[in-house]
Every structure is written in C-alpha cells, then in structure tokens.
Write a structure and sequence with these properties.
alpha/beta, seven-stranded mixed beta sheet, two-stranded antiparallel ribbon, 16 helices
Length: 345
C-alpha cells in the first residue's frame, strides 16, 4: 500500500478514566456531554468495555502485544513478583514492530511513571519528565522545600505544566510528515489531583478541602475539555482521516473511603472490582462499518487486532474478551478470571 493509504494511528490512554456506568453510579457524574461529542466526531463508544488486567503495566502489555498474559503464569511461575518481564513488553511490543515494518514513525508521549516514560524503540520520545526514581530521590533531599518555594521544582506545579504541554504538543503531531503511530499515556484523571474543571491549577490546600469524588469529577471535566480540543485539532489538521483509540487502562478504585492503590485485588468487593475493571473505551476507525466490526464489550486486547485486520488485511482475528485480576503484588501472575463478575449482564 502507498503512504497515502496508511492512516495515522493514535493510541491515547487516559489513566483510571471510569466507564459511563461507573461515573454515574459511583460519582453521580453524567458523562453524556463527552460521549455525545465523540459520537458526533465519528467515534464508536464501547459502552460495556472492561480492562483485561487490573494494573497499568499488565493492561498496556496486553493491548500493545495484542495477546493475553495468562501464559506468563507458566512461563515465569506464579510465585515470582518480578514485573520487569512485563515492563520489557511495554518497550519492545508487537504494535510497534508491526507499524514499523509498514513504514510508520513511532512517536511516544510518556508519563512520569517510569515504564512508559520513554520508549527506546520510538523514533521520537516526548519525554519531559525526570526519571521516577531520581525524582523520588530528589524529593527526599534538603533541596525539596527550597524547590517548592522557588516554584520551579514544585512537583505539583511541574506536573501541571507538563500535562498542559503534553496536550499542546499532541495537537502539533498531525503536521509531521508521513504515517505515524502515536502512543500517549496521560496519567489523568488518575490522581494526584491537579486541575479544576476549567483547567485552573489547584493548590494542595484546595485539593485537601474537597472530597475525593469532587476532585476526581473536576479532573475528569478538565480531561474532557482537553481531549475535545485535541480531537478537534487532530481531525482538522490530518491530511487523511486518522485512526484514534481513546481508552483507559483501568477504572477508578471507587467504593472505598479513599482510592487506595494497595488494596489487594483478591479482597476487593464486587462493587469496587466492577468500578475498577469497567473502563472508558472509544474508537474512531474511518471507513469501517462499526456494526460489522465493533461491539459494546470489545476489550483492549482486541483493539489492534481489529485495526490491523481492517486496514492492513492481516488475519489476527479476535481473542476472548476476558478480564483477570491477581491476588496481590507478590503474585502478579497468579491470574484469577473475573469476567463473569465484572461484565455488564
């Protein structure tokens, strides 16, 4: 196929963005303004989508390698807690290898979370973040309070500026020549809570004065505004209609007094598990008849199978839309099938 035939492909991860049903039930938040906007731009909303895995590293490894991770239980053993095997799958992944073989440039917009901060195979890394480890180290030194006073190194303000810059730089991508695969991991609406609904930068005091629900809902409104602006820019600046997948890797950890990251998944209530595993997922696939191709419960492990089969004539086909959790971080490969617990019917 000629270069003209290859659409740009954007894979945009909005971390911990809940499904419409979760937002309604847990946060009393009606997200139809945003989903209606996306539908008007030609997106298909997978209204019953679920995460395949409960944590970012596993979730993205499955979607970017277009396969389930359950084989790892045998390959590395259920008793290892070593996550580096999967981190490597976030670097040298199937999607990158596939698009590279078809002449795409890989543009990687990382996060402050180390495994996605940069990609060593990407043609371009938009990495504006200090390494997570050196950052944590800096924050424990005598310099930290000084940096906060000076404002330049205040981690809260720094993250706010970086998020805004990342959205700005993403709007410029369509102007880059030739076919592109763009991966962007945006650590919002995941906390820390940084923004009010209009994009106002919050102070720690303002965040602490509000409930978790208010903070999450406000940050979600901010994300929606930014994503609408981004989609408008991408669609208007692209020479040919691009493929865009907007997806969360996991939902919020709701139904708890706080969104504690460290609740063992094996101990989550059914309600919390549903909120966490039901995700936001939307596809813009130009020229595709959605009724024949997509369905409400499609999961991320199948996203690129569908895209590659349709646009490149491959024959990947679909995998089971299964959802798994693991008992705790000491046994991240001891997978438990929770599909029947978290599916919608």
């Amino acid at each position: 196929e000629g270069k003209e035939d290859r659409p740009d492909i954007y894979y945009i991860i909005l971390d911990r963005y809940g499904s419409s049903s979760t937002l309604q039930e847990q946060f009393h938040f009606d997200n139809s303004d945003f989903t209606d906007y996306l539908a008007s731009k030609g997106f298909y909303i997978a209204s019953e989508a679920r995460a395949n895995y409960p944590a970012t590293w596993q979730s993205l490894a499955a979607s970017l390698n277009i396969k389930h991770l359950t084989y790892l239980a045998d390959e590395v053993g259920r008793d290892t807690s070593d996550q580096t095997i999967v981190y490597e799958m976030l670097q040298n992944h199937e999607v990158w290898r596939f698009v590279e073989s078809r002449g795409y440039r890989y543009m990687h917009f990382g996060s402050w979370w180390e495994p996605t901060r940069r990609n060593r195979y990407a043609d371009v890394n938009f990495t504006m973040y200090p390494q997570e480890f050196s950052w944590m180290l800096y924050r424990t030194t005598i310099l930290d309070p000084l940096g906060v006073k000076l404002d330049i190194l205040d981690p809260h303000k720094m993250q706010q500026r970086l998020v805004l810059r990342k959205f700005d730089e993403l709007t410029e991508v369509p102007e880059v020549e030739g076919p592109k695969f763009v991966f962007a991991h945006i650590l919002l609406p995941h906390q820390p809570f940084l923004f009010g609904p209009q994009g106002e930068m919050l102070t720690q005091e303002q965040v602490e004065a509000r409930t978790q629900t208010e903070n999450y809902s406000n940050q979600l409104l901010f994300v929606n505004r930014q994503v609408k602006r981004l989609i408008d820019e991408i669609l208007s600046k692209s020479d040919r209609p691009p493929v865009i997948v907007l997806q969360s890797d996991e939902g919020p950890v709701a139904g708890l007094k706080e969104f504690k990251d460290r609740v063992p998944l094996g101990q989550m209530t059914e309600e919390t598990l549903k909120a966490h595993m039901r995700i936001f997922s939307a596809y813009c696939l130009p020229g595709v008849n959605y009724q024949d191709t997509l369905y409400p419960s499609v999961t991320p492990v199948n996203s690129f199978r569908i895209i590659f089969d349709h646009y490149f004539g491959t024959d990947y086909g679909l995998l089971e839309d299964s959802s798994y959790v693991f008992e705790d971080l000491r046994h991240p490969y001891g997978f438990i099938d929770v599909t029947d617990v978290v599916k919608y019917h």
